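Model it.
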Amino acid sequence: MSQNIIISGASGNLGQEVVKRLSENGNKLYVTSGSKNPGMFDDFENVSAQAVNLLDNEASLNFVDQTLSKAKTIQAGIFLAGAFAMGDIAQTDDALIEKMFGVNFFTAFHLVKPLMAHFEANGGGQFIFIGARPALEADQGQGSFAYALSKSLIFKMAEFINAQGKSKNITATVIVPSIIDTPPNREAMPDADFTKWIAPSDIAETIAFVLSNSGQKLREPILKVYNNG
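Modeled.
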Protein backbone atom coordinates (compact mmCIF):
# COMPACT_ATOMS: atom_id res chain seq x y z
CA MET A 1 0.00 0.00 0.00
CA SER A 2 1.41 3.36 -1.06
CA GLN A 3 2.09 5.87 1.70
CA ASN A 4 3.07 9.51 2.01
CA ILE A 5 6.34 9.61 3.93
CA ILE A 6 8.65 12.35 5.20
CA ILE A 7 12.36 11.46 5.23
CA SER A 8 15.10 13.64 6.68
CA GLY A 9 18.74 13.29 5.70
CA ALA A 10 17.84 11.73 2.36
CA SER A 11 21.02 12.79 0.57
CA GLY A 12 23.34 10.77 2.83
CA ASN A 13 24.65 7.31 1.99
CA LEU A 14 21.89 5.63 4.00
CA GLY A 15 19.27 8.13 2.90
CA GLN A 16 19.83 7.45 -0.78
CA GLU A 17 19.30 3.72 -0.25
CA VAL A 18 16.14 4.33 1.77
CA VAL A 19 14.72 6.65 -0.88
CA LYS A 20 15.50 4.13 -3.61
CA ARG A 21 13.92 1.23 -1.72
CA LEU A 22 10.76 3.04 -0.63
CA SER A 23 10.20 4.73 -3.96
CA GLU A 24 10.32 1.31 -5.63
CA ASN A 25 7.31 0.41 -3.48
CA GLY A 26 5.36 3.31 -4.98
CA ASN A 27 5.40 5.51 -1.90
CA LYS A 28 5.28 9.28 -2.27
CA LEU A 29 8.35 10.64 -0.52
CA TYR A 30 8.86 14.16 0.79
CA VAL A 31 12.53 14.41 1.68
CA THR A 32 15.03 16.88 3.02
CA SER A 33 18.37 16.87 1.24
CA GLY A 34 21.65 18.73 1.44
CA SER A 35 22.04 21.97 -0.47
CA LYS A 36 25.20 20.74 -2.26
CA ASN A 37 23.26 18.56 -4.70
CA PRO A 38 19.68 19.84 -4.90
CA GLY A 39 18.90 17.85 -8.05
CA MET A 40 19.88 14.47 -6.62
CA PHE A 41 16.35 13.08 -6.78
CA ASP A 42 15.12 14.77 -9.96
CA ASP A 43 14.88 11.42 -11.75
CA PHE A 44 12.46 10.04 -9.13
CA GLU A 45 8.89 10.85 -10.14
CA ASN A 46 7.52 10.14 -6.68
CA VAL A 47 10.15 12.06 -4.67
CA SER A 48 9.82 15.71 -3.71
CA ALA A 49 13.12 17.03 -2.33
CA GLN A 50 13.84 20.24 -0.49
CA ALA A 51 16.89 21.68 1.24
CA VAL A 52 15.83 22.44 4.82
CA ASN A 53 17.83 23.64 7.80
CA LEU A 54 16.44 21.19 10.33
CA LEU A 55 18.33 22.91 13.15
CA ASP A 56 15.89 25.79 12.62
CA ASN A 57 12.53 25.04 14.23
CA GLU A 58 10.59 27.49 12.05
CA ALA A 59 12.13 26.15 8.83
CA SER A 60 11.25 22.62 9.92
CA LEU A 61 7.66 23.60 10.70
CA ASN A 62 7.36 25.31 7.32
CA PHE A 63 8.61 22.17 5.59
CA VAL A 64 5.98 20.03 7.33
CA ASP A 65 3.24 22.58 6.61
CA GLN A 66 4.21 22.78 2.93
CA THR A 67 4.32 19.00 2.71
CA LEU A 68 0.87 18.65 4.25
CA SER A 69 -0.51 21.22 1.83
CA LYS A 70 0.62 18.93 -1.00
CA ALA A 71 0.06 15.49 0.48
CA LYS A 72 -2.93 16.26 2.77
CA THR A 73 -1.93 13.36 5.05
CA ILE A 74 1.39 11.81 6.06
CA GLN A 75 1.57 8.23 7.28
CA ALA A 76 5.20 8.02 8.43
CA GLY A 77 8.29 10.02 9.30
CA ILE A 78 11.80 8.57 8.92
CA PHE A 79 14.68 10.45 10.52
CA LEU A 80 18.13 9.81 9.05
CA ALA A 81 19.86 13.16 9.54
CA GLY A 82 22.77 13.04 11.96
CA ALA A 83 26.51 13.13 12.48
CA PHE A 84 29.25 11.36 14.41
CA ALA A 85 32.09 12.67 16.58
CA MET A 86 34.83 11.00 18.57
CA GLY A 87 35.94 12.04 22.06
CA ASP A 88 35.67 10.68 25.60
CA ILE A 89 34.47 12.76 28.55
CA ALA A 90 37.85 14.46 29.00
CA GLN A 91 37.96 15.42 25.31
CA THR A 92 34.39 16.70 25.18
CA ASP A 93 33.41 20.33 25.66
CA ASP A 94 30.08 22.16 25.70
CA ALA A 95 30.34 23.10 22.04
CA LEU A 96 30.65 19.49 20.90
CA ILE A 97 27.73 18.39 23.05
CA GLU A 98 25.58 21.21 21.67
CA LYS A 99 26.58 20.27 18.11
CA MET A 100 25.77 16.60 18.59
CA PHE A 101 22.46 17.37 20.31
CA GLY A 102 21.59 19.64 17.41
CA VAL A 103 22.30 17.30 14.51
CA ASN A 104 21.25 14.06 16.19
CA PHE A 105 18.28 15.13 18.32
CA PHE A 106 16.85 18.49 17.32
CA THR A 107 16.84 17.68 13.59
CA ALA A 108 14.42 14.88 14.48
CA PHE A 109 12.49 16.64 17.24
CA HIS A 110 11.71 19.66 15.04
CA LEU A 111 9.85 17.33 12.66
CA VAL A 112 8.45 14.96 15.27
CA LYS A 113 6.52 17.68 17.10
CA PRO A 114 4.29 18.78 14.17
CA LEU A 115 4.00 15.22 12.87
CA MET A 116 2.85 13.98 16.27
CA ALA A 117 0.03 16.52 16.22
CA HIS A 118 -0.85 15.49 12.66
CA PHE A 119 -0.87 11.78 13.51
CA GLU A 120 -3.08 12.39 16.54
CA ALA A 121 -5.56 14.28 14.39
CA ASN A 122 -5.56 11.72 11.57
CA GLY A 123 -5.81 8.31 13.18
CA GLY A 124 -2.18 7.38 13.68
CA GLY A 125 1.20 7.11 12.03
CA GLN A 126 4.71 5.72 12.32
CA PHE A 127 7.99 7.25 13.43
CA ILE A 128 11.22 5.48 12.46
CA PHE A 129 14.49 6.60 14.01
CA ILE A 130 18.10 5.58 13.54
CA GLY A 131 19.63 4.90 16.92
CA ALA A 132 23.23 4.03 17.71
CA ARG A 133 24.92 1.08 19.36
CA PRO A 134 27.18 3.37 21.46
CA ALA A 135 24.06 4.81 23.07
CA LEU A 136 23.00 1.32 24.20
CA GLU A 137 26.35 -0.13 25.23
CA ALA A 138 28.59 1.95 27.48
CA ASP A 139 31.79 0.22 26.41
CA GLN A 140 30.97 1.13 22.83
CA GLY A 141 30.10 4.75 23.65
CA GLN A 142 32.83 5.81 26.04
CA GLY A 143 35.03 7.04 23.20
CA SER A 144 32.24 9.02 21.53
CA PHE A 145 30.65 10.57 24.60
CA ALA A 146 28.79 13.51 23.01
CA TYR A 147 27.56 11.41 20.10
CA ALA A 148 26.35 8.55 22.30
CA LEU A 149 24.69 10.96 24.70
CA SER A 150 22.83 12.71 21.89
CA LYS A 151 21.68 9.42 20.40
CA SER A 152 20.42 8.26 23.79
CA LEU A 153 17.84 11.04 23.53
CA ILE A 154 16.43 9.35 20.42
CA PHE A 155 15.65 6.21 22.41
CA LYS A 156 13.94 8.23 25.15
CA MET A 157 11.94 10.25 22.61
CA ALA A 158 10.75 7.00 21.04
CA GLU A 159 9.70 5.71 24.46
CA PHE A 160 7.67 8.85 25.16
CA ILE A 161 6.07 8.72 21.70
CA ASN A 162 5.05 5.11 22.23
CA ALA A 163 3.60 5.91 25.65
CA GLN A 164 1.62 8.87 24.34
CA GLY A 165 0.56 7.11 21.15
CA LYS A 166 -0.37 3.74 22.62
CA SER A 167 -4.12 4.30 22.29
CA LYS A 168 -3.83 6.44 19.16
CA ASN A 169 -2.23 4.01 16.68
CA ILE A 170 1.03 5.98 16.80
CA THR A 171 4.26 3.99 17.04
CA ALA A 172 7.97 4.72 17.18
CA THR A 173 10.63 2.26 16.03
CA VAL A 174 14.36 2.65 16.63
CA ILE A 175 16.66 0.84 14.22
CA VAL A 176 20.15 0.39 15.66
CA PRO A 177 22.88 -0.40 13.15
CA SER A 178 26.43 -1.42 13.86
CA ILE A 179 29.04 0.21 11.61
CA ILE A 180 27.41 1.02 8.28
CA ASP A 181 29.39 0.08 5.18
CA THR A 182 29.81 3.45 3.49
CA PRO A 183 32.73 4.98 1.55
CA PRO A 184 33.53 7.49 4.36
CA ASN A 185 33.61 4.70 6.96
CA ARG A 186 35.88 2.56 4.77
CA GLU A 187 38.19 5.52 4.30
CA ALA A 188 38.26 6.19 8.05
CA MET A 189 38.87 2.52 8.95
CA PRO A 190 40.75 0.98 5.99
CA ASP A 191 42.02 -2.03 7.98
CA ALA A 192 38.60 -3.12 9.23
CA ASP A 193 36.78 -6.26 8.10
CA PHE A 194 34.05 -4.74 5.95
CA THR A 195 32.20 -8.05 5.70
CA LYS A 196 31.17 -7.62 9.33
CA TRP A 197 29.57 -4.25 8.69
CA ILE A 198 25.96 -3.64 7.71
CA ALA A 199 25.05 -2.49 4.22
CA PRO A 200 22.82 0.59 3.84
CA SER A 201 20.56 -1.49 1.60
CA ASP A 202 19.94 -3.93 4.49
CA ILE A 203 18.87 -1.06 6.74
CA ALA A 204 16.62 0.26 3.97
CA GLU A 205 15.04 -3.20 3.70
CA THR A 206 14.44 -3.23 7.47
CA ILE A 207 12.73 0.16 7.23
CA ALA A 208 10.57 -1.12 4.37
CA PHE A 209 9.49 -4.05 6.57
CA VAL A 210 8.61 -1.76 9.50
CA LEU A 211 6.36 0.20 7.12
CA SER A 212 4.70 -2.95 5.75
CA ASN A 213 1.37 -4.30 6.96
CA SER A 214 3.20 -6.81 9.14
CA GLY A 215 5.70 -4.28 10.43
CA GLN A 216 2.96 -1.87 11.44
CA LYS A 217 1.89 -4.41 14.07
CA LEU A 218 5.20 -4.07 15.94
CA ARG A 219 5.05 -2.23 19.25
CA GLU A 220 7.92 -0.40 20.97
CA PRO A 221 10.56 -2.15 18.86
CA ILE A 222 14.30 -1.57 19.04
CA LEU A 223 15.74 -3.46 16.07
CA LYS A 224 19.47 -4.21 16.29
CA VAL A 225 20.92 -4.58 12.79
CA TYR A 226 24.46 -5.59 13.71
CA ASN A 227 25.42 -8.27 11.14
CA ASN A 228 28.63 -9.75 12.61
CA GLY A 229 30.07 -6.45 13.82
